[in-house]
Amino acid sequence: MKILGLTGSIGMGKTTVGEMFARLGVPVHDSDHAAHTALEEGSPVFTAMAKTFPESWCRKARTIDRKKLGTIVFADPEQKTLLESFIHPYVQAQQLKFVSAMRAKGMKNVVLDIPLLFETGAEQRVDYTIVVTAPFFIQTQRVLARPNMTVERFNSILRAQMSDAEKQERSDFIVQTGLGMARTQQQVRAILHDIQH
Known about the structure:
14% strand
């Protein structure tokens, strides 16, 4: 079984490309979704995070307020590192469970959608890496169309991520999403063809 690591900066179209793989019968694991489940009561790291970030702990709803947590960690790199020390091992464990389950089902390929693929060293755990990209003006249009997004917030997210150019340099495959859906779909099919031959 081939494990494909899918990544890309905000607004590049990574989610859309993941959906294309899924429609072609390739199971996709969403690391962002797994990270969100870590913040839900019942996850093995929930209690520790609630104690570590009490300002974000909503006792009434028994949930961690993601917005409050985001404000805390974006303002303080040490707090961000601390949060990642809970989230990253949890997400990695979920990825391993997913890969094992798909291998048991006899799947030929799986995709791990990992926004911080290179930043977390996850490229060591996949067979191929794929970066999703688009011209900067298209990326900007997409991101600023999101609710509650500002230019300042967009820029701070970009500063926190590895540059698109470096991701492209380090990837085995590049998917350009600025050329329309049909062209993007062709590139996804071509990747699946290439890794089988």
